[in-house]
Amino acid sequence: MTERKKIIQVQHLKQYFSPGKPNEVRAVDDISFDIYEGETFGLVGESGSGKSTTGRSIIRLYNPTSGKILFEGQDISKIKNHSKDMLHFRRNMQMIFQDPYASLDPRMKVKDIIAEGLDVHGLVKNDQERDQRVKELLKVVGLNPDHVTRYPHEFSGGQRQRIGIARALAVDPKFIIADEPISALDVSIQAQVVNLMKDIQRKNNLTYLFIAHDLSMVKYISDRIAVMHHGQLMELGSADAVYNHPLHPYTKSLLSAVPLPDPEIERRRTRLPYDSSIENNTHDQRQLREIGDGHYVFCSEEEVDGYKEQMQK
Amino acid sequence: MSDNILEVKNLNINFKTFAGTVQAIRDVSFNLKKGETLAIVGESGSGKSVTTRSIMGLLASNAVIEHGEILFKGQDLLKESAKEMDHHRGNDLSMIFQDPMTSLDPTMTIGKQVAEPLRIHGKISKEKALKRAQEVLELVGIPNAKNRMKDFPHQFSGGQRQRIVIAIAIVNYPEILIADEPTTALDVTVQAQIIDLMRELQEKLETSIIFITHDLGVVAGIADRVAVMYAGKIIEVGTVDEIFYQPKHPYTWGLLSSMPTLDTKGAKLSSIPGTPPDLLDPPKGDAFAPRNPYAMQIDLEAQPPFFKVSDTHYAATWLLHPDAPKVQPPAPIVKRAQEYAHLMQTGAVDTPSEGSQN
Ligand SMILES: Nc1ncnc2c1ncn2[C@@H]1O[C@H](COP(=O)(O)OP(=O)(O)OP(=O)(O)O)[C@@H](O)[C@H]1O
Ligand SMILES: Nc1ncnc2c1ncn2[C@@H]1O[C@H](COP(=O)(O)OP(=O)(O)OP(=O)(O)O)[C@@H](O)[C@H]1O
Ligand SMILES: [Mg+2]
Ligand SMILES: [Mg+2]
User: Fold this and answer.
1) ipTM here
2) Positive or negative torsion for Cα A139, A110, A89, A57
3) A79 burial class (0-12, 13-18, 19+ CB within 10 angstroms)?
């Protein structure tokens, strides 16, 4: 296989809050993974498992408790403020935030929110070009270009989320962290936005870290998927492997809870509970171990053979 | 009095903006029965939040209620004083808002915030209120709740904040609980827990729930009835089975067809092309017509009235007019109807409500 370019490398990342205090939270607790250029890497897992914290660490909103993050081979903690490298980093990595309300400045007009990046990075020559570009972006995300002078509170929840997407796309980044970008949208627009994100990806060779809890959508958009639980990765593999041949009991439990738009199925649904005590009953260290080609499971050395057998079936 | 705890009648709400008047809610009527769950689904911007905020008396300052009644146990909430509405909120009526961050006070610890409604409405001691707050936080699944009572909202994940908001809404056992996308920020397991929790609440206390969500899977699991909104109107309403297996409105068809399933792969998702109309200047005819592959001449000229499909099922589309040509719905919709017919033949489901019930 030809060596694929790694755009992101996360190495033994730990991110603790209030370390050592009674309210200590080990939000991310020693995770490692790579994201290849041009792929969509899906990150799923239950609420509070550390998905957003992982994304926020990658975009340098936190200083890791320990571990390293590389962007295009460069250790991001070593990028100096106000340097050329920093400008490059800021432009090429963008984030679409989970909370569209908190992430849009309520006092700014939509056109200024979207154009902020264009201004910072000097991507437009004059006001006319700026307006033109903003209107284009609004159209791209399915908003009325005539609404450029409105304020965020004059939009519905889903409309605001699309403003966040337009803002991220404005500066033509290489890598986008999309933290639940579509969960606030109605399904017909979810489909539009996902189709759109895929189109742009193909055209610009974009890479996505796609964080979500809507498993059917994550499966649809992702090439590879990692399943997170209590700050650790439980399973990592191709979207097909993780969905159609899940190995870790946590993944199985998660999949058994995906609601389907069919009342009869929902009336008869039984969910598989996850018993986390299996994580305690081994002696050697639990870590991600390769079970099949590129398919990893968080387990101890002694459990590997069991998982391999399961996969044969 | 009927068994309706809430009756919304001919509601019209406008917003004054610089660009003109936004006609956000255009003649909306619906009922809510005691102990039932009504789901409201529909296009982003179609008026789901505005409708439910008006019930709570919490509209933005530029809103004008042009017309209509909101009867809670027969009493028009639109005629209540600010003080009376204050009393309703947090006692009889409670709402979980779509945006957890703005409905939490960033400067107050979460323990205090959950205890607050108890302190305001019930006259109980601070200690008791905090104890109850902790119980409810545990109930909604905040890990280590005891030690995190003194943490602030920004110290919690998106889904955890949403659960804190839910805790505040249910701490006082409201009669009507309005949940505006309460689970969109939650993963499926917690989502399932919250839904179970709401069901439990409903069984114990006969709480009536209005549930707004984009997730049709959740709707299928939680709703007794479903109302579908488009461009400020309810365009179809029926029992959950009627809407999922025998939908009649082309917008509902589009909505149900654009869901990916766990085995959709590669191909583009089907979506409803185009954008919703500008509510500054709503069209004369059916607002969905420009995006409707089944639109007829009359759709451009006149708004369709509600046509009755069954005692519980109504849809506003000219396709139901006796003179309209018979059309073939999209393939996924036909498939749904067939699967349902099959289930019914094999006796796997109860007889539908057509003409029989209510
Ligand atoms: N304060 C306001 N001023 C002007 N227009 C408003 C205001 N609040 C809401 N609107 C408009 O009213 C319409 C209905 O908004 P609402 O928030 O009810 O939509 P929604 O159905 O809840 O959508 P979503 O699913 O995206 O949350 C939208 O077109 C919105 O832009
Ligand atoms: N600033 C902070 N201070 C203290 N604890 C925090 C902070 N931010 C997050 N946490 C905690 O870290 C854990 C992981 O949070 P994170 O936001 O990464 O979860 P998530 O997987 O994105 O969940 P969700 O699906 O609910 O958004 C949670 O227990 C949360 O309470
Ligand atoms: Mg998150
Ligand atoms: Mg809304």
Assistant:
1) 0.81
2) negative
3) middle
CA B307-B310-B311 angle, to 5 degrees, is: 105
Domain boundaries, chain A: 6-230
Per-residue pLDDT band at B46 (split at 50, 70, 90): very high
β-pairing verdict for B225-230 and B37-42 = parallel
Q: Which fold has domain A6-230?
A: Rossmann fold (3.40.50)
Residue B1: what pLDDT?
44
Q: Which value, to the nearest 10 degrees, does the dihedral of the CA atoms of residues B336, B338, B339, B340 take?
A: 90
From A216, which residue of chain B is nearest by alpha-carbon distance? Answer: B262
Which residues are CB-contacts of A132 (< 8 A; sequence separation ≥ 6)? none
Tell me the Cα Rg of chain B: 21
- Which among B169, B180, B208 is positioned nearest to B91, based on CA atoms? B169
**B302-311 CB burial, b ≥16 within 10 A, e <16:** ebbeebebbe
How far is it, in rounded angstroms, from Cα B318 to Cα B327? 12
Q: How far is CA A103 from CA B107, B184, B282, in A?
A: 18, 17, 31
- Of the candidates B162, B170, B113, the one whose C-alpha atom is nearest the C-alpha of residue A99 is B162
Tokens for B209?
């729930």
CA of B278 to the centre of ligand 1 (A): 12
Within 8 A by CB and 6+ apart from A84, the residues are: none
Please check whether residue B46 is in contact with residue B231, taking contact to mean a CB–CB distance below 8 angstroms. Answer: yes
Residue A187 β-bridge partners: none
Measured CA to CA, the distance from residue B272 to residue A91 in angstroms comes to 33
Instruction: Spell out the domains of chain B, with CATH numbers in brackets.
Output: 4-214 (3.40.50.300), 245-275+282-346 (no CATH)
Q: Of B167, B159, B211, B165, whose CA–CA distance to B185 is shortest?
A: B159
Per-residue pLDDT tens digits for A238-287: 999 999 999 999 999 988 888 888 898 888 888 888 888 877 766 668 89
Under DSSP, the state recorded for A185 is S
Which residue from B17, B269, B275 is facing A194, i.e. has the nearest CB? B269
Which one of the ligands is nearest to B186 CA?
Answer: 2
Pairwise CA distance, residues A232 & A218, whole Å: 19
Cα distances (Å, whole numbers) of residue B171 to A132, A277, B191: 50, 32, 19
Read off the pLDDT of residues A3-39 as tens digits, 9 standing for 90 and up.
789 999 999 999 999 998 888 999 999 999 999 999 9
* A-chain residues near B104 (CB < 8 A): none
The Cα B198–Cα B174 span in angstroms is 12
| Residue A140 Cα to chain centre, angstroms | 21
Angle, vertex CA A108, rays to CA B276 and CA A142, nearest 5: 20
Give Rg (Cα) of chain A.
Answer: 21
A46 alpha carbon, closest ligand: 2
Smallest Cα distance from A122 to chain B, Å: 31
The H or E element that residue A56 is part of is helix A51-58
- C-beta neighbour count of B330 within 10 angstroms: 15
Using DSSP's 3-state secondary structure scheme, residue B348 falls into coil
CB contact under 8 A, B217 and A266: yes
A146 against B321, higher pLDDT: B321
First to last CA, chain B: 16
Q: Which residue is it, tokens 């082309």?
A: B250
Q: Name the residue with higher pLDDT: B159 or A147.
A: A147
Of B42, B157, B190, nearest to A186 by CB-CB distance is B42
* C-alpha A253 chain-centroid distance: 21
Of B87, B27, B83, B78, nearest to B54 by C-alpha is B78
